[in-house]
Design goal:
This protein has a single domain, classed as N-utilizing Substance Protein B Homolog, Chain A (Orthogonal Bundle), CATH 1.10.940.10. It has 137 residues and is mainly alpha-helical. It contains seven helices and no strands. It is globular. The protein starts with a helix and ends with a helix. Helix content is 75%, strand content 0%.
Length: 137
């Protein structure tokens, strides 16, 4: 797995944990950073922090895009892992200039295949494809 792939997975861990515990994302991010320091592991990758901060900063816009393109699905009804994957990928597609949309979508699908339900990868692909088309200039 690439360094950015690992960073996306760590960002997913932080976002999912915050969602599951219903606590602020920044609190969970700080806990992850403290835990890594106490275990003498390298601090969180800058890209992990960039993704988490970006999702937090743009969450209302990101959630609105997901809701608009997740036909027949309410954001609250989605599995938490799918919500987190979508938030990261929508942030990359709409806000990040150095990641091609195809890469962001591919990485999201890969995480869904590894970490979520059998139907999640197809669902996430469809939502992100629609977001990418809508976001295109």
């Amino acid at each position: 797995m690439s360094a950015r792939g690992k960073a996306r997975k760590r960002a997913l861990d932080v976002l999912f944990e915050a969602d599951a515990k219903a606590v602020p994302v920044k609190q969970v991010l700080a806990e992850h950073q403290r835990r890594r320091e106490s275990e003498s592991e390298p601090s969180l990758n800058d890209y992990t922090i960039f993704l988490v901060d970006g999702v937090v900063e743009h969450q209302s816009e990101i959630d609105a895009l997901i809701s608009a393109h997740a036909t027949g699905w309410d954001l609250a009804r989605m599995p938490g892992v799918d919500r987190a994957i979508l938030r990261i990928a929508v942030f990359e597609v709409t806000q990040s200039t150095d990641v091609p949309n195809a890469v962001a979508i591919s990485e999201a699908i890969r995480m869904a295949e590894e970490l979520s339900t059998e139907q999640s990868a197809g669902f996430i692909n469809g939502v992100l494809g629609a977001v990418a088309v809508a976001a295109a200039p």
